[in-house]
Amino acid sequence: MSLDLTKLQTTLDGETDIICRRDFGHLPAKVWRALTEPALIRQWMAVDGHPMTRCEIDPRPGGSFHYEWAGPDGTSFFFSGPILAVDAPRHMTHIEHFNGDPAMAAHITTDLAPHGTGSRMTMVMRYANAEARASAVATGMTDGMDQVYAKLDALPLD
Amino acid sequence: MLPLDAPFAALADPTRRAILARLAEGEATVQDLARPFAISQPAISRHLKVLEDAGLIETRIDGTARPRRLKPDTMAQLWDWLGQYRALWEAQFQRLDTLLDNLPDDPPTERTL
Questions:
Q1: Residue B56 neighbours by CB distance under 10 Å
Q2: Cβ-based contacts of B92 with chain A (< 8 Å)
Q3: What is the pLDDT of residues A133-144, one digit of tens each?
C-alpha cells in the first residue's frame, strides 16, 4: 500500500515517539531553505490569526532557535531550544522546549530525502516517556482547540 | 456514533480544556486546580467528574489526597481522532507548498553546505 503523503501524516510510534511525514514538490535544497531561513519561515509558519512575533534560527551544531507567536489577551507562546546536528540540506537534530519549560522537551530529528522530483520529510519527535508524550499531545490539543472547535461546531456533541 | 463522543464533548468547554492543559504539566489536586480559575472548588469538581467520566483523566489515591492526572491511553486515542487539529498543521504546510512554488531554484545568497 502506498501512502499519500501530499498531506501531513502523523502517527504515534511506540511509547515515546510521534512521527510526521510529508511530501513536497521541490528538491531538498529548496525545502531546506524554507525550513531554516527566518524570512521564509515567517511566511508559512503563522498559526491562524497569530503571526510570528519572533523567528530566529542559527542552523548549525551549537546554534539555537526561537519561534514565538502572540496569542489572544496579550499572551504569547514559543518553542525554543538548541540545534544539535546539521547536515544541510538533508538532516537536522534539535531539542524543542514549549514555553521554555525544560520538563516539556522533545528530541526532534528532521530528515529530507529526495523523492521523485521532490522531497519526503520525516520528522521524529521523541519524548522522555509515554506520559511526557501524552502531555505534549494534550498541550498541543488544548492550544489548538479553540480553532478546532470552530470547525467541530457542526458535530452533535451533546 | 463515535466512541469518543464523550471526550469530545468534555473538551468542548474552555475551563475543562484549561484544566487538561494544567494536568499536562503534571498531576494536581482539586485545590491546585481551583487556584488559577475564578470558580469554586465544587465547580472544579464537577468539571473533573465530566473529564473523568469521559475517560480523559483518572484519580490517584494518595493517603487522603486525590490528585488527578491525564490518562495517556485516552490521549493517544484522541490523537488518532483529531484529524481536524492536524488539519491546522497541514494548512501551514500548504502555505509552505505555495512558498516553495514561488521561490527561485537558485538562492541569491550563499548556501551553507
A1: 24
A2: 44-47
A3: 777 776 665 555
